[in-house]
Specification:
With 194 residues, the chain is mainly alpha-helical. It has two domains: 98 residues; 39 residues, no CATH class. Strand 1 and strand 2 form a beta hairpin.
């Protein structure tokens, strides 16, 4: 034991030697507190609902039922809160996706004009028999590469040739005499979806 511990222990020993009844008093106080605590829960001492020597358990059953209802309500509240948090997260993800698409829309629209021009170049070079095959192949590869970049960003080509006409996606500019009714007979400019 160090000197400090010895010095700290000495006053306690002095108190005990000066007051020999201190330990006895502490024990009596502890027993009194214990007895009071036990009496709080003893219906015979409290005069709670007692029938003869039997405890009336209906009071306790009512309290248990009340607590069970509170637990049930808390669980239901937690389940609702979890569902609301999940739904809020899903809405946030959807809004983020919409924002991303909106941000890309203008940029991609301008790029699609370039794709259309490349397609026109391919058609015109194919129509000219004197055109160099290397130029045609280069334009085709550039066109393919460009479409791959757009596909990575979620842009897909819509080519409705011979499909049923849908005014939500198609714009009619005329009637093709050889096409079936309500079908797209000829595509003048392809559409794209994001």
């Amino acid at each position: 034991m160090s000197n400090n511990e010895a010095n700290n222990a000495a006053p306690n020993q002095e108190n005990q030697t000066q007051n020999p009844n201190a330990a006895h008093d502490n024990i009596e106080r502890s027993e009194t507190v214990l007895e009071q605590t036990l009496n709080e829960f003893n219906p015979e001492v409290n005069g709670d609902n007692v029938i003869g020597n039997d405890i009336d358990i209906t009071t306790y059953e009512e309290r248990i039922a009340q607590l069970e209802e509170e637990v049930k309500a808390a669980k239901e509240g937690q389940a609702r809160a979890n569902a609301e948090a999940y739904n809020a997260q899903k809405r946030m993800e959807q809004e983020t996706e919409k924002s991303r698409k909106f941000a890309l829309q203008k940029f991609i629209k301008e790029l699609l004009e370039v794709v259309d021009n490349l397609e026109r170049a391919i058609v015109s070079v194919q129509a000219d028999d004197d055109a160099d095959d290397a130029i045609l192949e280069g334009v085709k590869l550039t066109h393919k590469s460009f479409l791959n970049v757009l596909n990575k960003q979620g842009v897909e080509v819509v080519d409705p040739q011979n499909d049923k006409f849908d005014p939500e996606f198609h714009e009619a500019v005329g009637i093709h005499p050889e096409a079936a009714a309500d079908t797209v007979g000829e595509v003048l400019q392809k559409g794209y979806t994001l």
